[in-house]
Amino acid sequence: MFLGTSGEWMARSPQRCGNGHPITPGHVLVGSMVCACGERRHLTWLCDCGYTSYGPPLGVSCSILNGSPPFAKKENRYCGLSLRGVTVAVALSRLHEEGHMPKEWPLEGHFECGGQGGLLVTPDCLGREFTSRTANHDLIIGMPQLDTRPKHGSLRAPQWTYGDQDEDEDWDEDEDREFWGFMLPEIMGILLSLFSGSTVPEGGEAAHVLRCRFYTSLTASTDEEFDAAADDFAHELEDWWTRFTSWVSILTSQDFLRLGGQAGLMTNKNWQVETWTSNADGQRARDESRGYKKGNRIQTSPLEVNDLQACVTATGNQGAPPAEWLFIRDARSLLNGGENRRAVIEAATAAELAMATLINQYFATANTDELVRTALTERYRALEGRTQLLTRLRSGLPKRLEHDLIKPRNSATHAGHPLTDEQALTAVDMAVTVVEAAYPLASLLPTQ
Predict the structure, then answer these.
(1) Were both Cys, which of 158, 284, 368, 376 would link to 142 (CB 3.0–4.6 Å)?
(2) What are the phi and psi torsion angles at 373 (to 5°)?
């Protein structure tokens, strides 16, 4: 208690709730309740976790006049929900005297990230948290931890705000030792580089993260409102992950789309046949298994911690990458699946759109008259025309642009000719150069 400016004694706000959480703005609902103790009313501070603090504190003669007994026992329970493949562990803590006032509900859980390959990161990303935002909610993303326990998986669950349901439960980790992900030791990193085109960081280790933690808070008055809000958030989280992995794909060439139908982590194309011949007696002989495995054509790299934070931030602030970079992402995925013609067409589309941006940037810088802009835009159309116009307006376009990108695109589109791996790779690389000129990644994903 303290003496207020009006001369009356007032209840001082507690520093922490009974569960130890700080009482801070945005995380507490302040109110009052009528009591039969003679104080008439007690101020209340309802924490995010559900614990209610009283001022003055409740005493033996207190009886809150809303039909609830004094010192109502707090009810703690965990509720596991499955929302569109998102598993959540919701900490529900309530007092019996709580009414149907809107409050902040914590929502915590984990989700699968990216199919068989997961998210490839450097070891210094493990155990960290990254802040972002979905369409309507603040978001914390947590990486799993390195598991140093014997006979366990490479990665283990991240730090939870509300802990496991059971101390012995690590989200089925004992049944599935790669539930959270796994480390690639140096020798496996070398093999991955040889078979799939991935690069490994200095030191030879990388982590494949198969699940990530999330934490947010929802506003609801009832269980039904909470369930509806949690369902809506699951949709938002799916959209957030799609946009986030687009940034990661553009930055590191990790393939989350698998447009070419590639089969798994280390190889995307395999072909196996059983063969035999005959011996001098006309009997079957020399049974052999023959085939091949072809790795990804695009070299990938693990996500470093600064780049991971940049991708998380860009997802929360800007949303999806520019369309030109999304076409590059798709072209790389098609290359990995052996779809060379489709990859070159996608890459050429990215370059054509990027050229339009470069032309408009030039017009804006030169204060070009609108009539002149319109006339030039109408005259120089499509990829070839925009190349000619840019060549006249400014220097800096790659000298082999026509040979490496335009001619292969025309062969694939107008003549239906097949393209070699080398032609397709070169065309995509050329398109990346043009898109980078229009939308530099350093400005889209600042790491400082």
Answers:
(1) 158
(2) -55, -50
pLDDT digits (tens, 9 = 90+) for 107-143: 888 888 865 578 999 999 999 999 999 999 999 999 9
DSSP run (H or E) holding 306:
helix 305-317
Contact 409, 427 (CB under 8 A): yes
Tokens read off for 153: 């998986």
Helix (H) / strand (E) element for 288: namely strand 284-294
Angle at CA of residue 109, ends 89 and 445, nearest 5°: 165
Q: How confident is the model at residue 218 (pLDDT cuts 50, 70, 90)?
A: confident
CB atoms within 10 A of CB 64: 24
Handedness of CA 146, 144, 120, 259 (dihedral sign): positive
Summarised one tens digit per residue, pLDDT across range 157-189 is 888 887 654 444 454 444 455 678 888 764 344
Amino acid 115 reads G
Q: To the nearest whole percent, how much of the chain has pLDDT over 90?
A: 33
Contacts for 418 with CB less than 8 Å, ≥ 6 apart = 340, 341
**Residues 6 or more apart in contact with residue 412 via CB below 8 angstroms:** 340, 341, 344, 345, 419
Q: Rounded to the nearest 10 degrees, what angle do helices 340-366 and 382-393 cross at? A: 40
Nearest to 328 by CA among 225, 437, 231, 402: 437
| Alpha-carbon gap, residue 316 to 306, rounded angstroms | 16
* Residue 375 structure tokens: 């006339």
Measured distance CA(266)–CA(288) in Å, rounded: 24
* Ranges of each domain in the chain: 2-72, 81-252, 322-444
Q: How many CB atoms lie within 10 A of CB 86?
A: 21
Which of 327, 320, 326 is CA-nearest to residue 342? 327
Q: Is the pTM of this model over 0.70?
A: no
Q: What percent of the chain has pLDDT over 70?
A: 68
Q: Please report, for residues 22, 182, 198, 221, the alpha-carbon distance to residue 209 in angstroms, rounded to integers and kept in the order given.
A: 32, 7, 15, 36
Out of 3.30.565, 1.10.60, 1.20.950, 1.20.120, which CATH number does the structure's domain 322-444 have?
Answer: 1.20.120
